[in-house]
Design a protein that fits this description.
With about 130 residues, this protein is an alpha+beta fold. The protein is about 25% helix and about 35% strand. It has a single domain, classed as Gcn5-related N-acetyltransferase (GNAT) (Aminopeptidase, 3-Layer(aba) Sandwich). Bound molecules: coenzyme A (COA).
Length: about 130
């Protein structure tokens, strides 16, 4: 299992993860709209891409995080390994913001267990933030 920068050949696997109905139900619209200058990492296990972590530059500085693990592989530790491996690649002191759709308690628990703090709500999402160590 490893985390590595995403490559063009990963686009089909990433699209499959994004298009899964469970992913659609639990990811904000922003997860589906990558900016050109986004930084993206994937987690690969046995030659299969099982998830991605994408950092889109945010208007207030820092990045907006979108992350998804393939729904068939939730709760197996892949998300933690992917997030840790991706955050390590960013400079220390980088502000990371993430939006979580309502009724996604699993993602809130996941992110808050990994250093994110709940900072507020928009009309459509809870907003969490962290600054990389
Ligand atoms: C959030 C997500 C990335 C986590 O990935 P994952 O591979 O399932 O994560 P892990 O297996 O490493 O860890 C899951 C953690 O959540 C916890 N968890 C899972 N469901 C939970 C629930 N309903 N309530 C509380 N905690 C829950 C697990 O106990 C585990 O915590 P622990 O490691 O401290 O014991 C994945 O669920 C996902 O892709 N969700 C849909 C998209 C999304 O919500 N993305 C985040 C915002 S963009």
């Amino acid at each position: 299992m490893r985390v590595r920068p995403a490559q063009a050949r990963d686009s089909e696997a990433i699209r499959d993860i994004l298009d899964h109905p469970i992913s659609r139900a639990f990811s904000p619209e922003s997860a589906h709209q990558a900016t050109e200058s986004a930084i993206c990492y994937v987690i690969e296990s046995e030659d299969r891409v099982l998830g991605f972590c994408r950092f889109d530059p945010h208007e207030d500085g820092g990045y907006e995080l979108s992350m998804l693990v393939h729904p068939e592989h939730h709760n197996k530790g892949f998300g933690s390994f992917l997030l840790d491996g991706s955050l390590k690649e960013l400079s220390s002191g980088t502000r990371i913001r993430v939006e979580v759709v309502p009724n996604n308690g699993a993602a809130l628990a996941f992110l808050m267990g990994r250093g994110f703090t709940h900072i507020g709500r928009t009309e459509h999402a809870d907003v969490l933030e962290m600054v990389t160590p």
